[in-house]
Amino acid sequence: MLHVRDLTAGHRSDTPVVRSVSFHLPTPGVYAIVGPNGAGKTALLHTLAGHLRATTGQIVLDGRDLTGLLPHHLARAGVALAPQGRRLWPSLTVRDHLTVTRPTTGGGFSVDDLFDLFPPLAARRRHHGHQLSGGEQQMLTIARALRTNPRLLLADEPTEGLSPHIAGQVTAVLRDLPDRGVTVLVTLPHTHAATALADRVYVLAAGRLSDPLDPHDGQADLKLRHHLTLTANHPE
Ligand SMILES: Nc1ncnc2c1ncn2[C@@H]1O[C@H](COP(=O)(O)OP(=O)(O)OP(=O)(O)O)[C@@H](O)[C@H]1O
Question: Could you give the strand order of the β-sheet that contains 208-209, starting from the edge strand earlier in sequence?
Fold first, then answer.
């Protein structure tokens, strides 16, 4: 599905924050990346979405080389980003957010599909972005990304700042997306949330990615914490 090889990127060419990252998402599923603040999680997702340019490496989705494409070309190729901080348009209603965002290919999620997926948004369809709760804003950020009909959804800390109940609603939707043909790559700050949600979990620390861990391995949470501690102590 997604092959990433030797990806290096940064906000300045002499200061990489994503360092020789390689991974392979073999089948549709939910894949999580955990790591401390400043580890490079956002930078990695932004590089995959074309907002940050890679200085080395290759990004291949479904056999197509997407390396170096601009964000709107990546969107057309099936990559959607639900950014951290939500970045909604304050003057547009919930419904406007979903209607001005057009599917990049045929099929996919209609506006009504997205309201079915996120009932709180249906109830707030005429509200503006700034009138929404944090959880509703997060749901709208994901719904807007899904509206483009992606193959790969990049969700940057989608449960940040949400109550456990609302976070559970958001992660339940993410969990079901592979059944609808959408692979999810999600960043999360904590190993516990990642092992509960994902099929595979990676640790990103100081820009370097671990091997994937199987969260169903009873030791996964312990191993992830151990890896985080080791990498934090030896960033190079
Ligand atoms: N616009 C920017 N210009 C320069 N450096 C930046 C910029 N944004 C982030 N950085 C730096 O890049 C590094 C990686 O940041 P990034 O936001 O990717 O980390 P993160 O793992 O997503 O952290 P968090 O969980 O705090 O969001 C950090 O050292 C950060 O200070």
Answer: 79-82, 152-156, 183-188, 30-34, 200-205, 208-209
Kind and range of the H or E element at 220?
Answer: helix 220-233
Q: Considering only CA atoms, which residue is closest to atom 3 of ligand 1?
A: 11
C-alpha–C-alpha distance, residues 204 and 11, integer Å: 17
- Residues 211, 214: Cα–Cα separation, whole Å: 10
Tell the CATH topology of 2-233: Rossmann fold (3.40.50)
pTM above 0.80, yes or no: yes
Q: What is the pLDDT of residues 175-193, one digit of tens each?
A: 999 999 999 999 998 888 8
Residue with tokens 């790591």: 35
Q: What are phi and psi of 64, to 5 degrees?
A: -105, 130
Query: Closest Cα to atom 1, ligand 1: which residue?
Result: 11
Residues 1 and 150 sit within 8 Å (Cβ to Cβ): no
Q: Which two tokens stand for residue 135?
A: 């959880």
Q: Domain limits of the chain?
A: 2-233
Mutation to probe ligand 1, out of 18, 42, 46 (largest number of atoms < 8 A from CB): 42
Tell me what ipTM this predicted complex has. Answer: 0.94
Residue of 7, 8, 11 with the most ligand 1 atoms within 8 Å of its CB, for mutation: 11
Residue 77 to residue 149: CA distance in whole angstroms? 10
* Residue 33 alpha carbon to ligand 1 centre in Å: 15
* Token pair in block for residue 181: 């043909």
